[in-house]
């Protein structure tokens, strides 16, 4: 058993070794403490997938907390499924193939794993990349929560409006930091109507420097979370 103790590992399966390795490099910018493993290409370095590489990647990523496997094309999924068939029962029970776009889903899954999320939560984060607007990434439920707090309908709620100060706006790295901090609170918080715990939802807002951001919660216990997240935005996420 390898992997980072206590964290779900993420495996990227691609027909191209360069794509798989590039995705690990990309996701590592936002999930530095999570075990991310590339399983790309064939055993001889060609284009395709390798049963052995996938099996070895799962073993490397597995710390006991679970492994999320993301694939690029249909035959990669078949290779991953075959690899799972040859795992011991106890290992197979904690490995999931995630039905999600490889890039967006992989990054979302990696960020969720970095925050200490469970395997089910990591899988859900990855799948959120495929489903568009959902309750968890800023659908009607998220919007109504923000609206209630902002309009005063929920008098016990709390909201703050702050401004993006980062030169490059709310790009991937600060967005990941924001989501990780949001994940430390049990209450629901929204960012311009999007769930603060949804990386893809927040990045989809396209927030640039100078953009106003409303951080809100209708939960009576949400003040601490709102203030912490608003303060993070105001301080520029530690970027110069």
Automatic annotation (TrEMBL):
Cellular component terms (Gene Ontology): membrane
One Pfam assignment: EIIA-man
Enzyme class: transferase
Record's keyword annotation contains Protein biosynthesis: no
Sequence segments annotated as region (Disordered): 130-158
Enzyme Commission number: 2.7.1.121
Gene Ontology biological process: glycerol catabolic process; phosphoenolpyruvate-dependent sugar phosphotransferase system
PROSITE patterns hit by this protein: PTS_EIIA_TYPE_4, PTS_HPR_DOM, PTS_HPR_HIS
Subunit structure: Homodimer. The dihydroxyacetone kinase complex is composed of a homodimer of DhaM, a homodimer of DhaK and the subunit DhaL.
Function summary: Component of the dihydroxyacetone kinase complex, which is responsible for the phosphoenolpyruvate (PEP)-dependent phosphorylation of dihydroxyacetone. DhaM serves as the phosphoryl donor. Is phosphorylated by phosphoenolpyruvate in an EI- and HPr-dependent reaction, and a phosphorelay system on histidine residues finally leads to phosphoryl transfer to DhaL and dihydroxyacetone.
Protein name: Phosphocarrier protein HPr
Organism the protein comes from: Herbiconiux oxytropis
């Amino acid at each position: 058993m390898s992997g980072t103790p206590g964290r779900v590992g993420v495996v990227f399966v691609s027909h191209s070794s360069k794509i798989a390795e590039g995705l690990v490099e990309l996701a590592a910018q936002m999930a530095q403490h999570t075990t991310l493993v590339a399983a790309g290409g064939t055993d001889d370095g060609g284009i395709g997938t390798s049963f052995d590489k996938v099996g070895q990647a799962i073993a490397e990523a597995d710390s006991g907390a679970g492994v999320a496997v993301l694939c690029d094309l249909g035959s990669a999924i078949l290779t991953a499924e075959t690899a799972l068939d040859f795992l011991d029962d106890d290992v197979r029970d904690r490995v999931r193939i995630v039905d999600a776009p490889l890039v967006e889903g992989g990054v979302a899954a990696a960020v969720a794993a970095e925050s200490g999320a469970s395997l089910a939560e990591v899988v859900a984060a990855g799948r959120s990349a495929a489903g568009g607007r959902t309750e968890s990434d800023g659908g009607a439920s998220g919007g109504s929560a923000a609206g209630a707090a902002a309009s005063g309908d929920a008098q016990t709620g709390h909201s703050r409006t702050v401004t993006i100060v980062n030169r490059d706006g709310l790009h991937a790295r600060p967005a990941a930091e924001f989501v990780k901090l949001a994940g430390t609170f049990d209450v629901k918080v929204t960012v311009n109507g999007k769930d603060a715990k949804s990386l893809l939802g927040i990045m989809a807002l396209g927030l640039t420097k100078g953009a106003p951001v409303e951080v809100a919660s209708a939960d009576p216990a949400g003040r601490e979370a709102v203030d912490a997240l608003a303060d993070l935005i105001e301080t520029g996420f530690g970027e110069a």
